[in-house]
Amino acid sequence: SDYLDNGNNKMAIQQADKLLKKHKDLHCAKVLKAIGLQRTGKQDEAYALAQEVAALEPTDDNSLQALTILYREMHRPELVTKLYEAAVKKVPNSEEYHSHLFMAYARVGEYKKMQQAGMALYKIVPKNPYYFWSVMSLIMQSISAQDENLSKTMFLPLAERMVEKMVKEDKIEAEAEVELYYMILERLEKYKEALDVVRGKLGEKLTSELQSRENKCMAMYKKLRRWPECNALSRKLLLKNSDDWQFYITYFDSAFQLIDESWTPPPEEEHSLEGEVHYSIEQAVKFIEERITEESKSSRPRRGPYLAKLELIRRLRYRGCNDEYKLGDPEELMFQYFKKFGDKPCCFTDLQVFVDLLPSSQYTKFISQLLEVTPLSATAENEIALPADTKALQQHLCVVQLSRLLGIYHAMDKKQKLTAVWELMLRYRHGLEFGKSCLKTELQFSDYYCLLAVHLLLDLWLEGEEAAVWQCLTLLEEGLSHSPSNAQFKLLLIRIYCRLGAFEPVAELYSSLDAKHIQHDTIGYLLTRYAESLGHYTAASQSCNFALRFFHSNQKDTSEYIIQAYKYGAFEKIPEFIAFRNRLNSSLHFAQVRTERMFLDLLLEANISTSLEESIKSMSLSPEEDDIPWKDLRDNRDLTVLFNWDPKDRDISEEHRKLSLEEETMWLRIRSLTLRLVSGLPTLSHTIQPKNSEKTAENGVSSKIDTIRSLLQQLEAAVDSGKKFLEQKIQYPVLGPPPTRMAGFFSNGSCQCQTSLFYLVSDIYELDTNGLEDSAEIQERIGNSFKSLVERLTDLFNKCKGDLIEVRDGTLKTHPNLLENLVFFVETISIALWVSSYCDGVLRPFKSNLQKKKKKKKESSVAMPPVFTHFLDYVTELQILTSNVIDHIKGLEIILTALKLEELSLKDTLLLQEEKKFTKTVQGKVQSSYHHSVQEIGELLKKRLDTIKKLKI
Amino acid sequence: AAALMLCTFTVMGKAEGSVAREEWHGHVTALSVAPEFRRLGLAAKLMELLEEISEKKGGFFVDLFVRVSNQVAVNMYKQLGYSVYRTVLEYYSASNGEPDEDAYDMRKALSRDTEKKSIIPLPHPVRPEDIE
Q: Considering A449, A483, A500, which residue would you say is the last residue of a domain?
């Protein structure tokens, strides 16, 4: 088996064979051979051999373990359960086999059987963990039960009784067992009982998490709406640590609840279970002021008390109290906060939360007030005053960020903005001095100056200043060269390159982000939205694969996590793991990459390297099957992964998220329906129906066309809602969610072409079932469809014409929409050709029949029906059109190659030498990327052209 | 105030080792603080919490691995009372052709280790496969 471990599967098989010659029935050798077979791609043989051994119900450790490994590699974990079921029957007292059986059930989520297996184990060896495995399995049954009533009246009470039994017998040992008890009571909504457990003797075992008892108590007090306890406990915890923000929130929430209820403490008794309660605004004000006084004595500055004061002001204002309680002017308090914490990078985000408290008329004054206390010094008059150390730099940076937040930069005119950019870049470059000894993995202190300058330039670009976007890229590339680990630089570069239609530089940038695990779901959209649509097919396949690999392995990994959680008694994590798995399984991005990956495979291969039918079969695609959980789709995208300091009204809003999800879902629906329609094409052909059972075959096919027609209806409906959606003309912020390809799909006419093509399929099917007799009307309809399709496809081609990159007034301008249209053209013509080959399959037998008749009659009286000529003309037109597009693409390639960007006079004399260098790099990257796109699109189209030649009947 | 929760740090610790051999200890698997929330003493606070839990769990010491080149982190841990117990050769496997990097195994004794035996430095570096 060393051979297996080393990956030498062939040798492993040989060795196993040798052994088997000597000992014919050596089970383990057989299984090892099977593993070798499985790993060399002989799944069927491996399976057969494994089943041979399994049928003997082995009880030796080696065979069992080897089979477990094999089944896991076969993705058949359910077979492992069978294996150990048989083993424990034969060796009923084996703790080991029973525990393997339990884990095998856990892998497949057989909760009921887990419960029994746990108890069986406990009977053999009365160890607590086994007993509680069984209890946990009851909870899992309750979570997975569809019927909530059943879960509350049966599973959970049973679990509760099981734990109570152990409590009564004083057998509770581990922290995990108490956690489990708490979990049961919480789910039963027995909050009072849960509280008693946590506060009682058992609660003393809760030590693994800090403040575990306190947090659990707080959660229960909230559920029970016991505000006095909530308040008193928060107060106690804040006295211990005045920086724990969550307790300020519960402190305020509970205090205001008590105020609204006019609560008064019971006479001559403790205020509450947790001691003293604050139930008036005066007390709250005093408490916060005391925290501040306390803070000023501490050695390490604490932000909590100061922010709590601002929070209290905000809450009081919300209730209509302004300054009755003499807490002070927010502007002054924020100023003081800046003085104290301005040199910390978090100062901006801290204050951001409270800027609403400032009147807009005070913004400019507030900012200049901050500037006044920022220690900057100028070496000469008229020179920009610069910070002398990183603390001063950080303070100034905070002021700049706040200025952006307050809209001060937005209000500037073009000239002011350009000056501001220049100043920010000067500060950025000056700040690099402080970070000369930084490691490659560290960020430069002044990076944000550069990022802020780029944001300003982005504003200018969106206002129509074409040159600004190139400067954005230039500055970002410059920034990245000094700070190669800055993810924000990379992310923004990715976004801008994509917006300009240049995908090539993006792949490298993204890979240097080193996205891991869940990030394939949360930020994968940055890649997958653009790769395919910009004609980088290879990169598109790769990006889909990254994501898919993660989603698929997640399934397996989660089982492992669950097993580990049982082993270590981390019970409360198990439902979390399962919720996590579910969330990933219903991920929007997962559904998207699944769909687009299949689309891509068809586009690149179907009827080129393999037949459409085979391609569809190998993906197990079928028109009837819809595996997208439409109702539960979860948008896991991180839409705020790109930093910004924009004011609220320009920032990404909840509304944007909602709309973007809606748009993505609509587009996904259109794509998935189109894919299913394409996958239905081969099912309509006669060729795949068995000839001897014509009757049943016909029934089979007729239900297929019903499926197609119903899908077509659904597609029409999806298109309608998509169009309605787009009428709203939503503009997402440039750093927010990217718009889908839907708008282009409608406006360039691909949508109409594609739907007409599926209607054509329906007509051809009709001709097929009707036969050529009395089919003049259908034939005419088909002929007209052909004609209008050619017109529409020609229109689509016209929408692809024009220069991809042009030089205007010394500035480059890219036209990514032309590229996107070209990609849509290729896709649409591919569908047209798949439909044509279906059509070809229908017409060919008709024609050969007619020709046979013709030969018999030996005369020319049998006229060729017009549909043949129509089809031939149509295919010829498609061929000409495709050739024209290929020629056009060749032309684009020549222009792109000839485009001499070096000669582009960079008129802007403001540009430094270094900037000029980066500008050249950037423009070169864009040019090369366009070249790449055009080449890939051209190559694919050439392959498609070759397939047309086969269609001429 | 939800924005204040943006603080994205992680501390993963696990209690491992056997009590009999006085190896029962807390281990820091990873610790990172988002750039925006640095310079606030969060890392120190998190280490303090892990030590507190490890004390409660009756551990003998707390340990962690850190890249030899990560001077900032090494110094911080030293300030927090940690010392280099041993060097683990080529512990961090590097990508893109660069050489693998060594790690320091740094430790801090907890109150249960009264004689501070757990932190007496080893005289020779060890290989990753030799650490348990």
A: A500
